[in-house]
Design a protein that fits this description.
Layout: H1 2-5, H2 9-23, H3 30-37, H4 41-53, E1 57-59, E2 66-68, H5 70-80, H6 84-100, E3 103-110, E4 113-120, E5 135-136, H7 142-150, H8 153-162, H9 176-189, E6 192-195, E7 202-210, E8 216-225, H10 234-250
Antiparallel strand pairs: 1-2, 3-4, 3-8, 4-5, 6-7, 7-8
Length: 257
């Protein structure tokens, strides 16, 4: 009886919805949620709208399915010290590290910055290492530029409108026009390049990991010194990076068009 006094039915239903969606990465429709929970359509509507407004779930406008967002992934990674994404990526990250002789990083978007979830340190005697959880700018590096390029256009434009494109040096992209031009190149090539646009002497090559909806759920990239990742290696590293990203993406249901 003591427990029922503090029982919050709608909170329990919201948690049930989150649990169900965590078990169905392809998403669930409103009808499927109603049938599974055996509650009214109005209740499901109010709960899902609240979760959407808070950024914990989103809805695919084509399939009309609800699915968990990156915000939930960040919470899970913070609570567990690891994540489903990391588990499905780490072996391929280490393999890529050995192939290209560079450090490999994995990150997701949180707000207007990227957050590093995992790293596979490697490369030349001069190695790059960061603390997990480190945030980074989107406009001045390969992973962020790749994410902007492969997000749905409306989402990319909305995200760009919130970015403070700080100028770090003469190579930094600081305008939307210049970023849009770069994004078009990235889409055609498949990966982005960072020619020391924020950190002197640091080159990066990055792309995205996609889910079954062809949606970019994470960023993956190789980082090394300009003496190690030289311009004549960009194409080779880019090809290996794309192959790695595709392998990981397939674990999330991605299929090539």
């Amino acid at each position: 009886m003591a427990e029922s006094k503090f029982h919050v039915p709608n909170l329990e239903r919201a948690l049930s919805i989150l649990q169900m969606l965590s078990e169905k990465p392809q998403g669930l429709t409103q009808k499927e949620l109603i049938d599974a929970l055996a509650i009214s359509k109005n209740s499901v509507y109010r709960i899902t709208m609240t979760l959407m407004e808070e950024g914990y779930i989103a809805r695919d406008e084509t399939s009309r399915c609800y699915y968990l967002t990156r915000k939930m992934m960040i919470l899970g990674a913070s609570a567990m010290g690891d994540s489903h994404l990391v588990e499905k990526s780490i072996d391929e990250m280490r393999e890529l590290r050995d192939q290209v002789n560079a450090s490999i990083y994995l990150a997701v978007l949180e707000g207007t910055t990227g957050v590093i979830l995992e790293q596979a340190i490697g490369g030349s005697p001069f190695k790059f290492s960061v603390d997990l959880g480190t945030r980074f700018n989107l406009h001045s590096g390969a992973p962020g530029k790749a994410l902007l390029a492969f997000l749905p256009p409306e989402e990319a434009e909305e995200l760009m409108s919130k970015l403070n494109m700080v100028k770090f040096n003469s190579r930094t992209i600081t305008t939307k026009k210049a970023m849009r031009e770069q994004m078009e190149i990235i889409r055609k090539r498949g990966y982005a390049i960072d020619m020391a646009e924020e950190f002197e002497g640091c080159h990066c090559i990055g792309t995205v990991i996609r889910d079954h909806r062809n949606y970019p759920i994470a960023m993956i990239w190789a980082t090394g010194s300009s003496f190690n990742i030289t311009a004549d290696r960009f194409e080779d590293i880019g090809a290996k990076l794309l192959s790695t990203a595709e392998k990981i993406s397939r674990k999330f249901g991605f299929l090539l068009p």
